Amino acid sequence: MKLYILDNGWETLDKSFFIAGANSAVASNRNPTNEWIDIPIQAYLIEHEDGYILFDTGCDPDWKENWPAFIPEQSPYFATEEQKLLNRLAQLGVSPDDIKYVVISHLHVDHAGNLYQFKNAEVFVNEEEFLYTLKGYVTGRDMDVHVPVDIQRFIDAKLNWHLLPNDVKEYELAKGVTLLNFGSGHSFGMVGMRVDLPNTGSVLIVADAIYCKENVEPEIKVPGILYDSLGYKRTAKYILDYARRTGSKILYGHDIEQFRTLRKSHEGFYD
Questions:
Q1: 259 by DSSP, 3-state: which?
Q2: What are the pLDDT digits (tens) for 99-115?
Q3: DSSP 148
Q4: Which position among 26, 102, 166, 224 has the lowest Cβ density within 10 Å, counted as fewest Cβ atoms?
Q5: Are 250 and 204 in contact (CB under 8 A)?
Q6: How far lies 15's CA from each of 19, 35, 56, 110, 116, in Å?
Q7: pLDDT at 105
Q8: Residue 206 in contact with residue 179, Cβ under 8 Å?
Q9: What is the structure's pLDDT at 31?
Q10: Is the per-residue pLDDT at 24 higher than 90?
Q11: Given the DSSP bridges, would you call strands 36-48 and 2-14 parallel, antiparallel or unpaired?
């Protein structure tokens, strides 16, 4: 089994979206300078004896035309041609039709942008994430950074959905690959994945259940983009405890410092 980390470009945004209250004014500094940060956009490909598994599907390459105007104003996206998801897969000799399973951490703009391309795959997502996203789309309310074009595209694609109810906490997708159903927090319903690699050991892919190390060290700090603050804290504690119990390395959702240290797909893989 091999794990490839796909570098799909980056977004930039105010740090307060990442750490709620970052850059806040205090009595001694009533007009602080806001900190504008870069965050990586990535997906993960597992080459497994049962077939290819893809975790998350990145941003829509046509984001300039398809995203609601407030999103690129809030967090513009940048990617070279080689960084776009389908091109990253092609560099490994993989096409969308080759993917057996797609696991979606949640249906936000930077995690489900190319989902409609994977018509042959079985798609796993938290049940409440799926239902509340569709409810928001139909009613035009509470969309946050769920993108209408993305949703219409995966509806039209008639994907093969597998919805994970919140009472299913773990789901063995394949030997050595376990889905972790975190429930609400950053979004309506978050999913992570544990991958047990024979040489590297266990890695815990948590996506935006924890943006970055700073969200949990030295204490848990909620992000500014958030659906359920109590759920976020509960999930963060669970992930930290789970990683300690299982000896797993946490791969955060958008940690630029960690990302710089990781081996990307164009450089090699983890096994």
A1: helix
A2: 999 999 999 999 999 99
A3: H
A4: 26
A5: yes
A6: 6, 6, 23, 17, 31
A7: 98
A8: no
A9: 87
A10: no
A11: antiparallel
Contact 151, 133 (CB under 8 A): yes
Closest Cα partner for 6 from 48, 45, 36, 46? 45
Work out the average pLDDT over 59-84.
95
- In whole angstroms, give the CA distance from residue 207 to residue 239: 11
Q: Which residue has the tokens 């009595």?
A: 27
Instruction: Tell the burial category of 180 from Cβ atoms under 10 Å away from its Cβ (0-12, 13-18, 19+).
Output: buried
Nearest CA-CA partner of 106 in 168, 17, 180, 24? 180
CA atoms within a 13 Å half-sphere pointing along the CA-CB vector of 231: 17
CB of 253 closer than 8 Å to CB of 208? yes
- Quote the CA–CA distance of 15 and 86 in Å, as a whole number: 29
Domain boundaries, the chain: 2-22+37-261
